[in-house]
Give the backbone structure.
Amino acid sequence: MSEREVPAEFASTFQKVEPYPFEETDDLRRGPNLHDDLLPLLPLVGRWRGRGQGGYPDKDDFLFAQEISFLHDGRPFLRYHARSWIIDVDGKPVRPAAQESGWWRVVQGQDPKRPEIEVLLSHPTGILDLYYGHVDGTKIEIATDAVVRSPQAKEVTAGKRLYGIVEGALMYAQEMAAEGKPLSPHLSASLARVTG
């Protein structure tokens, strides 16, 4: 058999595949219907962009811009992606900053008026966060249930986030426990809806 010949049992594996055929959307006016389980997270669906500020004990404060997307494909979870970049005081980009990707889903809880959610986030710096929390109207409060990190990653041991829709904007505050320090304020931002 030559290098280019493919055994018959694997031949179908090497046939051309068309692009992913199922629509994913960040706009509730088009695409698949939002899964009923996601109704508590409906206000998040869309693309958001805005500015924030960050800091941490023994670190310099900084300004950043950020874009966050919450997308769905009709199944009972949201796909989440956030990317940020450091900006100067005039709002001009300085350099790329943090990114994170993950999944948000509503899980069975004890109180139907305060749905429980799980949020799984991965960071390109070798950290995985599993958050657990509640939705209360347009307010979402989550805290880490587990943080997993690679041996080379920064020592992060816990996180807490508060999200809310305030006068049409997505606002959040984030605390982090890292490098031997307890939970401390780390990031906050206000983002305007771009699509959705």
